[in-house]
Amino acid sequence: MIRRDYDYYRNSFKNIPKPFAYLDLDLLQENIRKIRKRNNGKKIRIATKSLRCVQSIRYILKQGDPFQGVMCFTIPEALFLAERGLADLLVAYPAWDKNQIRATARAVRKGNSVTLMVDNPQHVDHIESIARREESHIPLCVDLDLSVRYPGLVFGVRRSPIRGEKEMLHLVQRIAASHHVHLDGLMGYEAQIAGVGDHYPRQWLKNTLLRFLKGRSVREIAERRAKTVQAIRRLGIPLRFINGGGTGSLHTTSLEDTVTEVTVGSGFYAPGLFDYYRDVRYRPAAGFAIEITRRPQPGIFTCTGGGYTASGRAGPDRLPLPYLPDGASLFPSEGAGEVQTPIRYRGAVELNLGDPVFMRHSKAGELCEHFNHLYWLSEGRIVDRVKTYRGHGRCFL
């Protein structure tokens, strides 16, 4: 296993103005190898929202099998990637904006492969009417809700209203009756497994409960997904793909015979949130550096900037994590700030004004919303500086 320490990164980036973001290609390759070992022969669709960098997406796709296709989070992002030569683009969330759907219809008519997400007949009616006017034929994917419901508890996220065979078959038959859209695939995202940590420090009871609920969910959603796909196939309607999961559920979703592909995104960068998963272990390949500009007292260093907080339910796990040097930590009373971040340091490396503190963002792709470039590092050398979406002047949400 490749070893990384503070001096390795400090020396590698010694002439780079801070703050900056980076991607360690050697650790990325380790993560790619681990993902390959855990995919159980299934294709891997790349979640672009976790990368937000065209060059990073291309880099992974060039690794070949099993990486194939991308999952986008908006239509403008999908069209942006299509313009840059990427194919098999699945938009993971429903869209309603007429101009965006019209642009999709035109892109598909020109030969681009863009699949839109739907979860109710209104979506289908709306997309079909636009596709008809544009003389196009748009492929659709249906989002199957895989949350698990107990009395007083929804274990999962509130996404699609399609929860069973009845709702699914009604929608699928509606799509099949159209001349301007067709059913391309089925997606079901088990967020309660892929997106929920179960290894939080000093929270034994919470972790135990989450692992129990996750175990029950794995069995239930596999059965629900299989029954739904069988019902669709009995109608004689083919499915090009059946998509499921995420980085946090790769090891379970890929075991389902029904599933043809699993989506993976965060596993490539390995952000801080994945430290709280018992069954997920990847190397922290992406991060950012902030500069020490003050020393209020011994053992405390104040850095410029650093307050890049992640989305989701607010809490300490949404803050960026001091990564290197070892022994660095945030102050609970201040956290990571907009203009400065105080760091408590109890380590062996001597730190001085102007030195970097290396941080990890809590979530993968949101790191790139704060930087125009990623510095690509390999074997102690900067091998490239590539644009993020922000560097292209684009913000898709």
Explain the overall architecture:
The chain is α/β, with parallel strands linked by helices. It contains eleven helices and 19 strands. Strands 1, 12, 13, 14, 15, 16, 17, 18 and 19 form a nine-stranded mixed beta sheet that branches. An eight-stranded parallel barrel has the order 2-3-4-5-6-9-10-11, surrounded by five helices. Helix 5 (98-109) links the parallel strand 4 and strand 5. The two termini are 37 Å apart.
Key attributes of the depicted protein:
397 residues; alpha/beta; 9-stranded mixed sheet; 8-stranded parallel barrel
Question: How would you concisely characterize the structure shown here?
Answer:
With 397 residues, the protein is of the alpha/beta class.
Helix and strand content put the structural class at: alpha/beta
- What is the mean predicted local confidence, pLDDT? 92
Total of helices: 11
Biggest sheet statistics = 9 strands, mixed
Distance between the termini: 37 Å
The arrangement of helices and strands along the chain is HEHEHEHEHEHEEEHEHHEHEHEEEEEEEE
Unreliably modeled segments: none
Q: Approximately how much helix is present in the residues?
A: 25-40%
Give me the Rg, rounded.
Answer: 22 Å
Strand runs, count = 19
Question: Which of globular, elongated, flat, extended, rod-shaped describes the shape?
Answer: globular
Strand content: 25-35%
